[in-house]
Amino acid sequence: MVGIKDVARQAKVSVGTVSNVINRPEMVAEKTRERVLAVIDRLGYVRSESARQLRAGRSRIIALLVLDMANPFFAEVASGAERAARATGLGVMLCNSAQSPTEEADYLSLFAEHRVRGVLIMPADPTGRSLENFRRHGIPLVYVDREVPRAEACSVSVDDVTGGTLAVRHLLECGHHGITYISGPMHLAQCQDRRTGALNALAEAGLPGSALRHIEVERLDVPAGRDAGARLLALSPRPTAVFCANDLLALGVLQTLYGAGVRIPEDVALVGYDDIEFAAAAAVPLTSVRQPAFRMGRAAADLLIEETGGGAEEHEHQRIVLQPELVVRESSRVSHRG
Ligand code: RIB
């Protein structure tokens, strides 16, 4: 690991000057500061904010990086992780990538600087580049809500293909054939897998994949759901059923359709995904595919704690895939015999 003395030697300055460049840059002449920063970048020096922790042993902080902190689904995942961490005297630092690869990379740098014990991550960067760079720091990673090969790392996810099948099979059984899938960005594996499952349900019923219309939105939140709802209203013929990649999208769609006088489920049946607490509390209680979010967070933290604790030597990466469950409520309950 590159140390502060290596940087000082290469930059031909004192250790104190390097420390000032990092902590009090205003005290260092600009040309010196730039020369030191260039050496830091070239050597890949990572300042260790927690050097004391390194000398005294491991950090007691686990970092959890989620895609959208405002989404109650991730709060539930974080609760599970936090309970597992607390049970072993550790803490969880919750951070938000906001679906941004750039923000993901910034947080991974922060985690490396602070030498956290390990990282639970829901990747935002489809290229995986920032995670590959992060691996050089030797800090264990566990993927959450994403399945990866066991050779690479531990992962805990939910079978989203089955989840998509449960949602659309239910709508087909209610008599719907004009179904639209509203997804978030399709570079997210969650959105891809849910669509795959939806297509599998159509195939089971002997229907072509073209029977599933698809609206892709950039964000998996309520405003994006409202926008998607406006796009649904413009479709002709209008779908009689809508499957949304998560509950926040579905709640946004519900708000727009309801405001336009569209009856849910009589005119349009609606199914979400996650079964967050607000699904049951919606104006028209939302049918949703429940993910065991708390269990997912707890299982991921347990794997990371084993990999970074006393059991590290015997640790073998595991891939845990949990099963979703369909919860039927008023938003899709009526049969459609159109
Ligand atoms: O992050 C977007 C969605 O993917 C969440 O709502 C949850 O469903 C996750 O799996």
**Radius of gyration in whole Å, from Cα?**
24 Å
Taken together, the total number of domains comes to 3
Which outline best applies? elongated
How confident is the prediction overall: mean pLDDT?
Answer: 92
Question: What can you see in these coordinates?
Answer:
With 338 residues, the chain is an alpha/beta fold. The strands form 2 sheets. Strands 2-1-3-4-5-11 form a 6-stranded parallel sheet, sandwiched between helices. Strands 7-6-8-9-10-12 form a 6-stranded mixed sheet, with helices on both faces. The protein has helices at 4-11, 15-23, 30-43, 51-56, 72-86, 101-113, 129-135, 160-173, 189-204, 222-233, 247-259, 277-281, 293-308; strands spanning 61-66, 91-96, 118-121, 141-144, 154-158, 179-183, 212-216, 241-244, 269-274, 287-290, 319-322, 325-327. It folds into 3 domains: 4-47, 434 Repressor (Amino-terminal Domain); 59-158 and 293-322, Rossmann fold (3-Layer(aba) Sandwich), CATH 3.40.50.2300; 160-291 and 326-332, Rossmann fold (3-Layer(aba) Sandwich). α12 links the parallel β9 and β10. Alpha-D-ribofuranose binds at residues 67-68, 71, 73, 145, 184, 190, 220, 246, 273-274.
